[in-house]
Structures are given as C-alpha cells and as structure tokens.
Amino acid sequence: MKKVLLTLSIFVSLTMMALAQLRTGVVQSSDSNHPNDDPFDRVRVFIQKQMVERQVPSIAVAVARDGKIIWEEAFGWADRENRIQATPHTIYSLASISKPITATGLMILKERGQIDLDRPINEYLGEAKIKVRVGNAADLTVRRVANHTSGLPLHYQFFYEDEPFRAPSRDETIQRYGNAVTAPGEKYQYSNLGYGILDYVIARTSGKSYADFMRTEVFLPLGLTHMSVDVGPGLEKQQAVRYGPDGLPIPFYGFDHSGGSAIYASAHDLVRFGMFHLKAHLPDQKAILTDQSIDEMQKPTAESGNNNGYGIGWITGEYSGKRRSVAHSGGMGGVSTLLRLFPEEKISIVVLSNSNSSLPGMVTEEIISVVVPAAARKPTQPVQPFAEPVFKPTDQLIGNWKGNVHTYKGEIPFTLEIKADGDIHTRLGTQLRTLLNRVDFRDGYLTGSMLSDIGTEDANRTRYLLTLSLKLRGNGLNGAMTAQSQPGKRAGNALTHWVELKKQ
C-alpha cells in the first residue's frame, strides 16, 4: 500500500511540474541542439527551474567572447496567449538599457562636431529650456545630463494604450518638469527625464526624428535589424509581450522619456551591440564611433554608488572587486534586462525577460561563473529588515519653514513645522495638516513622505505619495517634491516639482 501511495505521489508531483513547465514554456527551448559536454548546461537547468518556481514567462540569453557568439538561446513564451515561443531573435522591451544605446547616437553627433558635450544643453533646445533653480545654468552641460549630475530629478511617466492619456510634446514635458533641483555637478541623481531630453537634442540637431536617426545611424550600420525605438515596422509579431505580476499581459505603453526607456532589441542584436562597445570590429558592422569615443563613454565621470561610476550611458565598476565591468540594467512593468561587458576578457552577456523579476541578474551571475569563473560572486548575505531611521533634528532645522511648491498649474503655499521631538507637521495649500513620515536627515538632505494632493492632472492619474528631498542651504530648504505612484498592477509615475522654503 505504501509503495502504491509513493508511486501515486511521484506521479502527481511529476504531473504538477509538467503543467508548470507548460505554462512557462521552458520545456520548449528554442535551441535544443547542443553538445553533451556543453558548459552552459547547468545554466539551462538553473533557468528552467527558476522560471517554473517564479512563473517567469520567458528568458532570452546571449553570450559573446572574442568577437564570436558562443551561446544564445531562449526559454518560454514570448506571447503566452498566442503560444508564440521566445527565440534569440524575439525583441524585448529593454527599459533603461535604452540609455547606452541613445548615448551611442549622441556620440555620433559629437564626433561630427554637431554637439559639444561640455556646452550647456539649453543651447540645443527650443523655446522650452531647463530651469536651473540652484547654481549656474552654464554648468548644466550635455555631459552632465548624460551622467545624471545635471540636477534633473527622479522622473518617469507611462502612457498606456487602453487609457486616454497621451505623452505631451517634449517641449511641454520640459516646461512642466524640466527643473534642475540641485546645482549642476552637485549630486548624482538618476533621471529618465535627462535621457528624454537627450533624445530630443538628437532629433533637433540631426533634423530627423529620434527613431529615424537611431535606425539609420546606429541600428542598420551595426547590422541590428531586430533593434528599434518602440516596436518598429515589420517587428510587431516578433515582440515579447510584457506581463504583470498577476501573469496577465500589460497593455502596450510609451513614455515622455523615450531615449531612456523605449528601445526594443533581441538578445542576438543586443549582444552584438555589446560586442561593438568591446571594439570587436565585426566585418558586417560599420565603425560608427571611434575606439576613443567608446572609451570616453565608458569612463566614469560621476560616482553612482556601490563603488560604481556613470559615464556617458554606461555604469563602470569592479565586478566582485575582481574584474572591470561595463554594464546597464533595465526594469519596469513587464521588463527586467541586463547587459554586462567585461572589456579585458572581451565578453558580452545579455539576459532579457518579459516580466519584472530578479531572475536576469541571477542568470547573469550563473553565466559569469562559467565564462569568468574567477570573477564569480560569493553567495550574498540575507537582506536585513529595514529599520526606520530615528530622526533627531538639529537646531538649524527646528522651527517653522514657509514657501511654495512650483507646479505647471501654479504655485502652492507649503509649510513645514519641525519640532524638537522630531515630528514634522506639513501643510500643502489649504489642505489639512499632515505628518511627514519616514523622516531622515543626512548629507544635508531632509527626506520624508506625506499624503496630500498636489493638484495636477498628471499626478492625479494614479494614487500617490508625495516624497520630499530638500537640501539645507543656510536659512533655506529647497529641492524636490515628487508625486510617486503607490504600488499597483501597472507601473505608475514619478513627477517631481521644485520646492523652496525659508525659515521664519
């Protein structure tokens, strides 16, 4: 009897696993013809197991070394509903990996003498200019926009095809949100808006639309026929559908910062893009940039944290403290992507997925353990629970602060009452007073979050919290108030406004 029950249990377990694999599609790898001693076999097993456990619809990988692709394969469904399997040529939404690609287009115009990276970016804009709220407008250069030290703040805004909202013109976006809330060069602040402005500079300078310029000057010369801004003509049936955490397709969406987020590419084409930036000089790729320009892009000119630096579109640092790495990742609704280069080893690694998860990073580390075993990372320690910081205000902070929040709808009176016990009472306009939560003060910045209505149509498309990041400057506090969407089934928005307060 026990033997029968055991056999039945095994049968049920195997059946359950098979059904789970069928949902993810991992039983139908796009490339099953590989040698028995293939060093990537254990990575395949890892991918298949993790996809089932995490319910990831698909993963596409590509690895190149010394100018040759040594592995490319895809697992799972590009489109579950239509049973379209992922392949190495399926195009995936890249999210922020769009930035080094956009930066490549920017450098082409720099080499042609049409753009000077160290000139103020406002010289390349039209009627709408970036407002430099602190510091000197002449210091807000193209380079500082490219390395995220321009003072432009946190920003992202999504526009879904099943909703009535559409992205405004880039001039309108700049008028609404083009505020440098810290002095140019003062602070690293990752900003999608900056790359949205760079794609506008590319279009204005080249005389072509951003999408056309990238296609004719970057994608086609590099032989990247499965790379496009958004989903290019003829590629509609080859796209990976973006899936939400509920496993359902996310309606197609766009942005007001295309240069930072809107590019699609296959794993095959993206690894070839990486090979170009490793100076592989492939015979079917034109030299659209000199090796000197490639080096300039990878040279960090801003500290971006975790012992990394940001150059022109690339994050550069020491991987595991052992190997120089040049990389960029991407993540948003239905997207998680990673492109990592090891220049000394001439290795390019791509992992793409059509859901938002940590799996691409995990797969990348498994691949590194095969191709650069000396650089493999040790298992990370468990993340410690977040501890609420204890806020103890200084005498300089204690007191009443009064000023305004500047929105595209107009100015709103704003007050802070910072008490000696650490409580901070806020009032926005004529709304009820509310407490500032999760308060912290470090490196001269007062941060926290609050519930209030900032009163703009853009912000009120979603439920949001208002987060503050205010720099103490003498008897003034100034900086950013961001309407940041609360978590939901769809990626929301982060819309930042300029705040300035004086101590009373």
Could you outline the blueprint of secondary structure elements for this entry?
Blueprint: H1 2-24, H2 41-54, E1 58-65, E2 68-79, E3 84-85, E4 91-93, H3 98-111, E5 131-132, H4 142-146, E6 158-160, H5 170-177, E7 179-180, H6 192-206, H7 210-219, E8 227-229, E9 253-255, H8 258-261, E10 263-266, H9 267-277, H10 291-298, E11 302-305, E12 308-310, E13 315-319, E14 323-332, E15 335-342, E16 347-353, H11 359-371, E17 399-407, E18 410-418, E19 424-428, E20 434-435, E21 437-442, E22 445-450, E23 464-473, E24 476-485, E25 494-503
Parallel strand pairs: 5-7
Antiparallel strand pairs: 1-2, 1-16, 2-3, 4-10, 6-9, 8-10, 11-12, 12-13, 13-14, 14-15, 15-16, 17-18, 17-25, 18-19, 19-20, 21-22, 22-23, 23-24, 24-25
Helix pairs in contact: 1-2, 2-11, 3-6, 3-7
Keywords for this entry:
single chain, 504 residues, alpha+beta, Beta-lactamase, Lipocalin, 2 domains, nine-stranded antiparallel β-sheet, 25 strands, 29% strand, globular
